[in-house]
Amino acid sequence: MTTPAHLNPAVRHDLVFLFDVTDGNPNGDPDAGNQPRMDIESGHGLVTDVALKRKIRDTLALAAADNPRYGIFVEAGHALNTRLAESYTANGLKLKGKLTKEQADTARRWLCDRYADIRWFGAVLSTGETNALGSIRGPLQFGMARSIDPILPATHAITRVTQTREDDIARGESTEMGSKWTVPYALYRVEISYSAARGAQTGVDTKDFELLYQVMEMMFDHDASAARGRMTARGLHVFSHDNTFGNAPAQKLVERVRVVPAGDAEEERSPRRFSDYTVTVDTNDLPEGITYHQVFN
Mean pLDDT across the chain, nearest whole number? Predict the structure, then answer.
């Protein structure tokens, strides 16, 4: 059976991922009082690649539960050095002392086969006593997600009826004040690239792609919180090449995915829903060797 082009780990892929937020904070900036991240000059909202990969990691652990090939390396509550040390002991290597290139490669392959996020995103492995392992550059690279329109974040005062300290109650205080930031609505776009050459080095396979697409469609449902409001995956568009090197520059492909205002573009706009936009994909005259697939919308 022939592997569908968008699931083939042996060829290059360029992807465009669309998602939106309603009445929530998709990615707070700790350096700015947890305000939604923004491009200060243009006012467009931003979501970091780190935030998106965190959601993928957390959801992948649920989607592939009990499958030893889908462990998560960067996981809350687990020390990286302990996991790196396991790659030594599992392969009969000593933590102290130099490793040969073959021994280091064996330990790296063991890590790639055990941890899906290393296979996809790579990792810095030269920490603690495992500095001989160097680093792995992941085949899946995310850009910074940017909103289609500028955003206008709002801050909301909130109260709590329970005090933190007994002394506050003794002084007669009955509530405590706080605040939260939200974006009324924003549609974000992020461009993603997959290197088949690096994927071959880390051991990415077809099952990895199937799970990745499934996770990207569902991850916001499993990451729901009052702070983030409602976040929804709105489309994943994949341009697949027919070889490792690629048939065309990425920008000539991803620019074919266009997001424009629905209706009269000249009228004053305050987007509040996904239907306020029109998404089109120009698949006419694709470069030779390029296949387009819309995974979900």
Answer: 91
